[in-house]
Amino acid sequence: MPRFDAPAAEVREYRPEVAEPADFDAFWRSTLAESRALAAAPRLTRVESPLTSVEVYDVEFSGFAGDPVRGWFMVPVGTDGPLPTIVEFIGYGGGRGLPHERLPWVSSGYAYFLMDTRGQGSAWGTGGGTPDPHGTGPSFPGFMTRGIEHHDGYYYRRVFTDAALAIDALRSLDRVDADRVAVCGGSQGGGIAIAAAGLSKGLVGVMPDVPFLCNFERAVGMTDRDPYFEIVRYLSVHRDAAERVFETLSYFDGVNFAKRAVAPAFFSVAMMDPVCPPSTVYAARNHWGASADIVEYAFNEHEGGAGVHWPQQAAWLAERLVPQAA
Amino acid sequence: MPRFDAPAAEVREYRPEVAEPADFDAFWRSTLAESRALAAAPRLTRVESPLTSVEVYDVEFSGFAGDPVRGWFMVPVGTDGPLPTIVEFIGYGGGRGLPHERLPWVSSGYAYFLMDTRGQGSAWGTGGGTPDPHGTGPSFPGFMTRGIEHHDGYYYRRVFTDAALAIDALRSLDRVDADRVAVCGGSQGGGIAIAAAGLSKGLVGVMPDVPFLCNFERAVGMTDRDPYFEIVRYLSVHRDAAERVFETLSYFDGVNFAKRAVAPAFFSVAMMDPVCPPSTVYAARNHWGASADIVEYAFNEHEGGAGVHWPQQAAWLAERLVPQAA
Amino acid sequence: MPRFDAPAAEVREYRPEVAEPADFDAFWRSTLAESRALAAAPRLTRVESPLTSVEVYDVEFSGFAGDPVRGWFMVPVGTDGPLPTIVEFIGYGGGRGLPHERLPWVSSGYAYFLMDTRGQGSAWGTGGGTPDPHGTGPSFPGFMTRGIEHHDGYYYRRVFTDAALAIDALRSLDRVDADRVAVCGGSQGGGIAIAAAGLSKGLVGVMPDVPFLCNFERAVGMTDRDPYFEIVRYLSVHRDAAERVFETLSYFDGVNFAKRAVAPAFFSVAMMDPVCPPSTVYAARNHWGASADIVEYAFNEHEGGAGVHWPQQAAWLAERLVPQAA
Amino acid sequence: MPRFDAPAAEVREYRPEVAEPADFDAFWRSTLAESRALAAAPRLTRVESPLTSVEVYDVEFSGFAGDPVRGWFMVPVGTDGPLPTIVEFIGYGGGRGLPHERLPWVSSGYAYFLMDTRGQGSAWGTGGGTPDPHGTGPSFPGFMTRGIEHHDGYYYRRVFTDAALAIDALRSLDRVDADRVAVCGGSQGGGIAIAAAGLSKGLVGVMPDVPFLCNFERAVGMTDRDPYFEIVRYLSVHRDAAERVFETLSYFDGVNFAKRAVAPAFFSVAMMDPVCPPSTVYAARNHWGASADIVEYAFNEHEGGAGVHWPQQAAWLAERLVPQAA
Amino acid sequence: MPRFDAPAAEVREYRPEVAEPADFDAFWRSTLAESRALAAAPRLTRVESPLTSVEVYDVEFSGFAGDPVRGWFMVPVGTDGPLPTIVEFIGYGGGRGLPHERLPWVSSGYAYFLMDTRGQGSAWGTGGGTPDPHGTGPSFPGFMTRGIEHHDGYYYRRVFTDAALAIDALRSLDRVDADRVAVCGGSQGGGIAIAAAGLSKGLVGVMPDVPFLCNFERAVGMTDRDPYFEIVRYLSVHRDAAERVFETLSYFDGVNFAKRAVAPAFFSVAMMDPVCPPSTVYAARNHWGASADIVEYAFNEHEGGAGVHWPQQAAWLAERLVPQAA
Amino acid sequence: MPRFDAPAAEVREYRPEVAEPADFDAFWRSTLAESRALAAAPRLTRVESPLTSVEVYDVEFSGFAGDPVRGWFMVPVGTDGPLPTIVEFIGYGGGRGLPHERLPWVSSGYAYFLMDTRGQGSAWGTGGGTPDPHGTGPSFPGFMTRGIEHHDGYYYRRVFTDAALAIDALRSLDRVDADRVAVCGGSQGGGIAIAAAGLSKGLVGVMPDVPFLCNFERAVGMTDRDPYFEIVRYLSVHRDAAERVFETLSYFDGVNFAKRAVAPAFFSVAMMDPVCPPSTVYAARNHWGASADIVEYAFNEHEGGAGVHWPQQAAWLAERLVPQAA
């Protein structure tokens, strides 16, 4: 697909007004409080695998409404004590798959946690293991419009809560250095990381790649690629729902979380990305509440930096973890 | 798409062995019994519309697990007493929409009921009004793989139960002649009609058009069109699930319901249909437990007979409703 | 397809200069006069159908050059005397099909006429019954470029004349209230309705949905969807024909008919419509010679409002038909 | 597109039974007789062009029903007297275009005539100049279904008659050696050449490339590429028309003309051709009434041999034109 | 594809700043000098063909680095002495094919030479006969990115040198009037013609049609059609290469050759061309160093004027060749 | 894409006759001997990376004709002495990318080498670093047809030689246990692994996934997906080249290498794979010269087992490496 967003110079400065509900903070405060009240301690089960340099644990922690959520937790063999820790969230449709598919961080001295996305994990990759035990109103195939008629029942309320509680759960582990937790993810995973950065305090870094779930008013209708287009398709059937739908989405817009972020961020953006248009990524980055670096991939679509980006993340994060001279 | 199924002569004779679980009847008996035990009387609300020749009612009846399910009930103005009644089920992704979109039967002297499909109604048309308040395991976008790992939690367990209970509910209405109820539907609606014919007794006719949900072992992988292809996509991620998935599907295969049908049937099939391949339609028709007429549309894809078919249905059904001379 | 036209605010104000031939009125005056001189009285034949609440008539009336044109005329059973009457025109490629496919208006107390489109009726639906007995110069497959090198031989000269003479013919029927005739149609049918509104006097309302055939200078080349694109394809072969072709089209541009309309209008427009771009719809609406309401469907493509729109039309028209207090 | 027809060995032997109407010969005899009775002498107009080695004439001759049909006639500069002559027919949708586009034969010592296809010439290339002054019943966009409900009004009745009368007209010219006329053409042009070979006597050779219009019963529905697929689309709307349509087509099937051919033939066929499937080409070749050579292009789609084939045609024909030793 | 470039009025005036390396002239001077030093005299071999009005020669001349390059040379039978001569370059992926495919110029009194494009000639048409005996670094499939990391090894350095040396070689032939050589070509052939016009002196005319290889900074990323998109794909993998790649391309940009051209030009441009966007064509034309006429094809994509354009070229060139009155 | 190959039962037994040149062994013997004679010792350069559990080396070894070929060599930190070693080859179009993208084997106690594919590495992923310094005849874009007219110059002669010499080079390293080297790869990488298994002795295991480059006579034309389709495209232009091309390919057919393999194999195959059709994979597996296990992925396309397959490979290989009890 050719370049289609505004010229690069405009995109870089794009910082839109985004609808923000008056009770945004109250909504999330009570949402988290309710689920935290239902949370049990995470359960870790050691998993055998061919990997000899990594210890692998199957984790089950309490997410939204106390629902069990799965993930992989890995630590390097031959280390002990609390480690700086990475929490990663997954792209749309994917599941946590298998541990050997996600080795770079744990091979670099970090504890690493990969959170399953409830209900997802059947569209690509090697599967997910977390159901979403909540029903839904009429929805377009996919996850974007489940419960979209009201913020209380919207699917991402559950997912973002899972993310915040994953961080809680990890911090309770003795192999995790609670003060040195960073979050990351690509696409949907980047959107969840942004939400986590708005909901969780004390993160050491936030690394969203080509993030999804930002600036819905612009994104919905600007591209005909899923998953944003799922919302267009829903609205094309529910022709009177636009106001309600965008009100719901305002509780979940990455821009509103970005404003509340206090940890430094390291974004990536792909300037020809038809799935997560670059201006919508800049919308979140330019509203970020703390320092926010960004790497542009000028000729990439949604694959963005792919493997080229991780070493840059590793370098950026390493610098944040070094004790600063007084 | 060109012709792709077996030659027409073979297709017409196709009558495959289809896996049937030993507890098929027990499963459905207990499923229906449990939900019937939870059913309340249907609630009808008169709806204003521009239509002057039709009375329209918004219906809410108790479906699976007592869940409220919606539908439109219409009777011709100027009639009274019990009428022969049509129950129609809807194609995949659609909802009940608006009453004026479905006028032929009620304009021909019938009472008419259109059942919403829970959770659906957001992919085309003018919307649905029935949520599906049950969660799901990891699933591919769409409805085909929700709960597909076990027959107890499979989505179509709920939908088929809704269909059987819709017939129960209608028969309780004074404008419905309980002995003269026929069911129909196209595509998914045809598949539901077949299931209803296997689950409900005393129907006067069953009219499935280009029905879906028949002969899964052949259909899954034979075509790359959704919704059958959703199952392929699920299995392509959950590479070890095929046995479990096909076991689940065996409880929902139209062929197994067809064997149990006792009401006469009037099928249609499109010989170039890439969505519901013609041989899978003949699989159900050739296993039908009673007389089963069929109209072939030789050069059509999934649109089948479209508007050309309804007059033939109307004629076929009229003949079934005429009191037979002794 | 994503949004592609100008921003909504611009689209709504779009009111272009459109080429208008000096002899536009003379051309149409003589065209209609010549065909009216050849017109015979319409012939109505009662048709049997399963419908019990509707009387159906197969109509043949005299269109352009006295050519026989077909249509369905329906009146509600149990009414008599002149009724307010709807005339509907059909979308590109379709034919009049079967009567039971078009029941809402006649189920709401109106007499209803559906005009076949000459030569069309073989691309979708259930068929048409009206030949176009006039040959054509070299043309691109389809109807858009038949005779496009001169306005005298252009295909739509015949179709628009058919439309005007359909209204004449209907007004001669005793079940039609000649003072309360409204026209409607979607896509091509909307374009024909606009032309009819420019050519026929005394209409009570005009209801074009996502109309085609408006503002050719903008539409041709703005979209690559047929049927506008048929003209691009023709011009890509006949590289010297652009001036002649656009001169021809200026006699048939909906904008030029809109300027001449005297009846109130009720438009619909789909803001993501790649077939009939929204600005070209607003071009006609913003030039309308009388009051012109419009409903926007913000997230729809060419399906526009579909079934959601008819109740709004019915309400709008009902208001126009109520005798006004003095 | 991958190989899709039967295995090559089967394709080469394929010689199907094809429906042949009892009055096939009578129909064509009377058709030609009627049009010949209306024929005027061809008119040639010398055309200026940059070409210095070729004399170019714009020809108008009398085709079906005396309708004027155009073509280009070219002879090499510096020759005189009667020359062996090639008549070429054009592929679907194209027109005669411009003389400099067709130089090989005339640059090789032949007189050359290119016949325009009535009504066509607007889909690709540089245009056609021959209208089709006959109207049509409801038809699918394109030419395949114009008048297809009866053989008297079918479009190709006119085209094939044009072809036969083109040969008549040419033979009347003093630069044409009437005993040494050969016909050729690709795709539709090949189909017309086959028809001409069945209708005209005394041809010295027939060279159809990847011919269209052969073995309709197999071709219609075997491929989803136009133009065969136009017939499928027509039948998908006119669901009751198949018998009539195939009866019509039996008067125009290349196989029935092939049986009647008495001139030697030189075919080409592309074994991966999705437009004119190779078995349908062999159907005509294997029924040919005289010797019929064929060149197979094993890895080509509808482009067939393209420029590689002409030298082979030239060599084949040259051999046919050499006076045989006694 | 719909119109997508800037509005026509802007496109016509578009005259961008284009990066030009300081050593552009030095680079090309030394490149040509080195290859000229290695050049042997061209070898012509008379080829038999069915053509009787044309003498055909298979030519091998020394291109870049003395590599043998092939071409067809044709002169009209019956002429002698030096003739005005056309040199044509070929579109992307094609080869010189067969002589009878390119007859118009030689049938109009010109000597004609068609240069093969090294390594190409296997993507369409009837083949090429010239290898490219130089290896390449990692490249995207195709020719656009072979050696693109440095101008010394870039593929088009070899091709453009071939073009300049083709002109040298031709001028050494006694049938070629060295003062009346013109160059032409479409798409890539047009781009090569422009380069030749910048590298060779004394041409009588330059006729680029819908030329490729102009204004890379705009073209790369503006369209998603190959071959420009090959560069995007390369850059999407080699994410750090953009600066190097565009530096390389600046040595090969048609705009930089256009500035240096001294022969009059006759361009064509297609205003809906998604392969060679019209603004990039105007970029070269508006920078042309001499008079530069242009013909616009308003409704064409990359096919441009096709056969309609050649007569205009022939007329334009004829005028340039007429001796001017003193 | 739906299932398209023969029925599974047939596919599993498929063991075709495949053309084998008489001098197959001689050709490869001399090819390897010549290149081995030019080989220098491999050069390893330690590379810094964020990885703390892996030592990474950039390797340059001598491949075909002594050409330098690159790769990554990795060993687990904290090990010493010779390790069992995996050599992996890469899928079509990809390059070696970055070390952290390939961690599973080295995280499981193996030394690991990833060989770059000369000339490739620009179509997906994060790039390659090995040029192919050999020119080519006319070729279709891509690598499949470079030099395909003769086996001496065919591209894969160089690649397969690189693979054999990579194994030589690795065995010379002190961290590699020369008796415990296994090869693997997916798609093209699987095809190279098969070739390596036919050319190198003493391998402990061969693990080809959905391998490409097997049974060309069947594959070429059976699918329209690249890269096999590149050969079809080449043959569609070079219409006389089929015999030469298939003779060339017979020197490179995986089936002929499979016959010569002496190490045990562990294949995977995807039963809906349109890129490497399953029967062509079974062709190699069923001709394998030693034991050959295979895992079928019934509902996968070319992604095959993806991450699900590696643990099975690891288990299979571990069993092969365990010292067997006497």
What is the name of the CATH architecture of chain A? 3-Layer(aba) Sandwich
Look at the structure and name the CATH superfamily of chain A. Answer: Alpha/Beta hydrolase fold, catalytic domain
List the uncertain runs of chain A.
Answer: none
Biggest pleated sheet of chain A: 9 strands, mixed
- CATH class call of chain A: Alpha Beta
Summing up helix and strand content along with how strands pair, one would put the structural category of chain A as: alpha/beta
Shape of chain A: globular
Mean pLDDT of chain A: 97
Give the DSSP E fraction of chain A (strand runs of 2 or more residues). Answer: 15-25%
CATH domain fold name of chain A: Rossmann fold
Q: Tell me how many strands of chain A there are.
A: 10
Q: Largest protein interface?
A: A-B, 33 and 33 residues
User: Helix share of residues of chain A?
Assistant: 25-40%
Q: How many individual helices of chain A? A: 10
Q: Could you tell me how far the N terminus lies from the C terminus of chain A, measured between alpha carbons in angstroms?
A: 50 Å
Give me a quick take on this structure.
With 326 residues, chain A is of the alpha/beta class.
What does this protein structure show overall?
The structure is a homohexamer of 326-residue chains. Chain A is of the alpha/beta class and 326 residues long. Chain A has a single domain (8-319), classed as Rossmann fold (3-Layer(aba) Sandwich). Helices cover 31% and strands 21% of the residues of chain A. Chain A has ten helices and ten strands. Chain A has helices at 8-13, 24-37, 155-171, 188-199, 216-219, 228-237, 242-250, 254-260, 278-286, 309-321; strands spanning 43-47, 54-62, 68-76, 83-89, 111-115, 132-136, 176-186, 205-209, 265-270, 292-297. The model of chain A has no long low-confidence stretch (mean pLDDT 97). The interface between A and B is medium-sized, with 33 and 33 residues.
